[in-house]
Amino acid sequence: MNLPLLIAIVAAVLSGALAALQAPTNAMLARAVGSPLNAALVSFAVGTAALLVLSLSFGVRPSQAAVKDLPWYAWIGGLYGAFFVTAAAYGTPRIGVAFFVAVMIGGQLAVALLLDHLGAFGLERQAITPARTLGILLVISGVLLVRR
């Protein structure tokens, strides 16, 4: 296995672990600050500060020419994260971490399957196959088992 692939896999596993930690952390924050929206605001402020420090530390600067040519929808990724943080802060205390994360992953995989099939956002197309569809159905079955 090549190093970039290994790093991508490890990053994905860590992202999943951190998403599971983020749900109860933001739920706790929501209780303290009075609402899921306030928790999301605080969470994004902390994240923005951390990214600013890292960006300045590594000297990472966006190319103005590349940024100028982006389509409008390239700018709304932060909205997805804001919705996730708010939904996690609201939903986790009501349905539990495991069920929230399981349902979230089911939704992620269903949309990911469609995006791969369409080759959306400039990604390489990957057809919807019976095996991939079965994989999604097995995950959804797992979601239902987590809820039982």
Number of strands: 0
Q: What characteristic shape results from the CA principal axes?
A: globular
For the sheet with most strands, the description reads: none
Rg, Cα atoms, Å: 18 Å
Instruction: Note the run of SSEs as H and E.
Output: HHHHHH
User: What's the assembly state of these chains?
Assistant: single chain
What percent of the residues sit in helical stretches (DSSP H or I)? Answer: over 70%
Return residue spans where pLDDT drops below 50 for at least 5 consecutive residues: none
Number of helices: 6
Number of domains: 1
Mean pLDDT score: 91
Structural class: mainly alpha
Could you tell me the strand content as a percent range? under 5%
Q: What gap, in angstroms, lies between the N and C termini?
A: 38 Å
Textual characterization of the structure:
The mean pLDDT is 91. The protein has one domain (3-147). The chain has 148 residues and is an all-alpha fold. It has helices at 3-33, 36-58, 64-68, 77-95, 97-118, 130-147. It contains six helices and no strands.
Brief synopsis:
By secondary structure, the protein is mainly α. Helix content is 80%, strand content 0%.
Observed structural traits:
mainly alpha, 0% strand
Any chance you could write out the topology, listing elements then pairs?
Elements lengths: L2 H31 L2 H23 L5 H5 L8 H19 L1 H22 L11 H18 L1
